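PT: before anyone asks, these are the final sequences, not the draft ones from last week. 329 residues across everything. Please model them as a single complex and drop the result in this thread when it's through.
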Amino acid sequence: MPQRIATIEERLRKALGDGLLAQEPLRLHTTFRIGGPADFFFAARTPDHLVTALRAARAAGVPVFLLGGGSNLLVSDAGFRGLVIRNACDAVEFEGTVAHVGCGTDFLDFIYQCRDRGLAGLEFAAGIPGSVGGALFGNAGCYGQDIGSYTIECTHTTPDGAVVETKPAAWYEFAYRDSRLKREPRVLLSCLLQLRRGDPVESRREIEEKLELRRIKHPQWRIEPTAGSYFKNLPPDWQMPDAKHSPGTHRVPAGQLLDACGCRGLRVGDAMVFAKHANIIVNAGHATAREVLQLAGTMKARVREKFGVELEEEVMFLGERPEPGDASA
Ligand SMILES: Cc1cc2nc3c(=O)[nH]c(=O)nc-3n(C[C@H](O)[C@H](O)[C@H](O)COP(=O)(O)OP(=O)(O)OC[C@H]3O[C@@H](n4cnc5c(N)ncnc54)[C@H](O)[C@@H]3O)c2cc1C
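LR: through. Structure below.
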């Protein structure tokens, strides 16, 4: 009698055990609180588990998406057809002023760990949600600083989990909200970050100051779900008279153009432009990805019409984009 062919779920479960979830709602894993189900979902707590999950997906022929804190993501209402692997590898070790950090570590939690050890440098980033790996992927930053400048090297694997290698920071080509990983996908497992000796009292003060600034200007994502700035600031060669540059950079903030186009308060369904910041979309209840995309499209069109420039999305989209007129997606 021919052997029964194992289903994809059986094959994944054999490799990943009971930690494998089916039909997991992705809205539970994004700060936007938007997104349909992933066919399969697995939280990898060690680099070995992560590599095993990548290899199992490859062997089963299943598409994979690597999730950090889900704070820079808009997930399709239809969800994701494949395996979402959440990087939950959060081991941190310190050696002098160098930290060896698992890339699933929560960024703010890591900044607190540095503060407690009298290690300074990353206070500027206090309040950027998400994981250290997600921060490296998009070279997260603010006030003209970014995580790439503190990176010595990273260890990553190829998306199929076949090759694990360590590369110096220069390999990642960190630039404004950009890294080589956006062009050559790799999964970051861990990194070495360079800090400096500091005063914990001063670090505490600076962290509190940065968190307070965010409390005043930005939505509190646990209460007002959002993915942060929706569009990137303008490229340095795009200037306009009387523009106030975003702190520490020579870039005109996208928010200024959106403000000039009267975008604050615009709303499509439950997707709404934040009242205090024209470049932030919040989920004011039960917003769908479709509503967010429609709102973002209107914002882009207004800026195009008034300034002749095309805004570029900072928030990433996961899953299938809805067809125009398709109300289900
Ligand atoms: C309220 C708010 C404020 C914000 N403020 C800022 C800010 O000041 N500056 C800023 O830069 N950003 C900001 N953001 C955006 C976001 O927090 C950052 O981009 C963050 O670094 C994303 O990390 P994450 O772990 O949540 O990534 P996710 O959203 O989970 O993923 C984003 C991308 O990174 C990839 N990725 C994640 N982990 C890894 C990994 N280990 N290896 C390879 N790829 C990986 C994912 O595949 C995906 O493509 C803000 C967001 C919010 C909600």
